[in-house]
Each structure stands twice: as structure tokens, then as C-alpha cells.
Design a protein that fits this description.
Elements (H helix, E strand, L loop, with lengths): L2 E3 L4 H4 L5 E4 L3 H6 L8 E4 L18 E4 L4 H12 L5 E4 L2 H8 L8
Parallel strand pairs: 1-5, 2-3, 2-4, 4-5
């Protein structure tokens, strides 16, 4: 099952260290990116996830992030199919992140 977590509630989603997996493209990261604050940040574009799966720890909670939440939901579903147990989709993506958690993150 995939949890849905609002950016403002990310730190309450799972106890311990969370990895935020940003699946946006490099050009998007150049426009707006989150700052790790109480979590680990890892950026892997959606299309590279299958080839780079070994970079992710299946025992660690992973919250997927994209622009609005569609791509990150697909990645979250893929991770669950690969045996990852603690997976969430960050609802509303980086756009919601800017509105709910860090207004210094540009909206695009």
C-alpha cells in the first residue's frame, strides 16, 4: 500500500530517517529544489529508477516527489512492486511543498 503524505506532515509520516526521492528531471531541479531538513534527499529522474534501484534501501521509508504528484505516484507503485515496504507519495509534489512547507521554493 502506498501512503499519501502532505509536505507539511512529512516528518510525522514514519519514525526515523526518511529518504525523499525526487524523480523530476535535472532541468526541473535547476528551477526548484527542496532542502534536506530532517530527511535525506536523493534525486533520480523517473526514467532512471529501474537502472539505479540499487541506490535505494528497501528497508528505509521512501517518500517520492515530483512536480504535482503523478510521476512520483508511478515511481511509488514501482517501488512497492519491487518489494519496498514503506513508500509514500508526496501529495501535490513540489508545488504543494512550496505552498505548505517552504515558500522559498519557487513554483513553476
Amino acid at each position: 500500500m502506498i501512503d499519501h503524505v502532505n509536505p507539511s506532515q512529512l516528518n510525522d509520516w514514519q519514525p526515523g530517517q526518511i529518504t525523499v526521492l525526487d524523480v523530476r528531471e535535472p532541468a526541473e531541479l535547476a528551477v526548484a529544489s527542496v532542502k534536506p531538513d530532517g530527511f535525506t534527499l536523493l534525486a533520480i529522474p523517473m526514467g532512471e529508477i529501474p537502472a539505479r534501484l540499487a541506490e535505494l534501501d528497501p528497508e528505509q521509508p521512501i517518500a517520492c516527489l515530483c512536480h504535482h504528484g503523478a510521476r512520483s505516484m508511478r515511481v511509488a507503485q514501482f517501488l512497492v512492486q519491487q518489494g519496498f515496504a514503506q513508500v509514500a507519495n508526496i501529495s501535490g509534489g513540489i508545488d504543494a511543498w512550496s505552498l505548505q512547507r517552504d515558500p522559498t521554493v519557487p513554483r513553476y
